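Input record (Table S2, row 431):
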Amino acid sequence: MTDFFEGMAPLRFDPEAEGAAFRHYDPDRVVMGKRLEDHLRFAVAYWHSLAADGSDPFGGPTFLRPWAGEGMAAARAKADAAFRLFEILGVPFFCWHDADIRPEGVTFAESRRNLEAMVDYFAEKMEGAKVRLLWGTANLFTHRRFMAGAATNPDPDVFAWSAATIKACLDATHRLGGENYVLWGGREGYETLLNTDMGREMEQMGRMLSMVVDYKHRIGFRGQILVEPKPQEPSKHQYDFDVATCYGFLQRFGLEGEVKLNIEQGHAILAGHSFEHELALARELGVLGSIDMNRNDYQSGWDTDQFPNNVPEVALAYYEVLRAGGLGQGGTNFDAKLRRQSLDAADLVEAHAGAMDVCARGLIAAAAMLEDGRFEQARAERYAGWDAPEAQAMLGSDLAAIAERVEREGIDPRPRSGRQERLENLVNRHL
Ligand code: XLS
Ligand code: NI
Ligand code: NI
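Output record (nickel (II) ion complex):
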């Protein structure tokens, strides 16, 4: 097969370049003591960039990739194209679902063997390449058997199939040295409460996640287990609604020390939050694991999975990430897809290059905001009253004692400005 990316060389950092290049993303640039590449830990999403065909609910495939097709030969051709793309972009990571990388077999066993064969093929290709696996995951939502959920299905045979699939995907992720394993439950929810036993479904989901954690320890997988919140789509309501909901779920099943979250920009918007809200909350709860970077259309109400192109938004997100101490074992996965009229290899490369530039600009701005110090200083000053010993003592006190003190000391609060616009203007100076 001819090379889809024919004539394309690895992209370089060159702000003056005429053609495709990185204009802001210099992987070796050191920011806050760390190379940009090590801060951002970019990953290509196999499903959007290699497996998707441009179809939407109203129209069929538009991309017509040369590697499209059934069977192992097509899967290998797709992998060849994938590794060319990774090389051109110079990304350190990629991510996949089982269904993206292997053909579905007639039986479960055949699907598993296909996956193992593709993992062998990946392992071979990774030997000579820079790219590593950020995370693997199981596709438990496309096939009709999952229409009523995976772990939450009313049919125990679907639960069994899902458990076996997750085991195979964890094994594959472990074999490829993956740094994380993700669970996203698009069908773990309901279409109507009229036919749903919510209590049972959540119990099943908790058991499945506990078994995933047990199995991780049994095989010695050192990666993080991550749950990816999303409020709805494809289900009308999903149990992993947002960070707060997921945290409550983890606590209920005693998994908050074992499982972290993979937080996606578009999903935050669908849940009625901002991306930075979800990241800040995850940081405060100690469950910030990794991010799925993309951009959501604010009008559509869908998970549009566009490539990011909004530097101020991305800067505020990375500000919360940097305040958490960085992404750690996680990364920045481009869970983003080309629009269906963007047909060419050049579109695929330029979409990623542009997104990497946007993220680099965002992270550099976020680091400058932290190093500026005035944001954290303003925050500290706003809460300074709480540093006083009597304020701290009050938290361990009781209502009656506090009431007595209010009258005795004649406490009379004096409102002070929150200085929001000043801080917003300061953000703007770093963009
Ligand atoms: C879909 C999700 C999905 C997960 C992986 O909305 O974002 O792509 O990241 O299953
Ligand atoms: Ni995602
Ligand atoms: Ni998504």
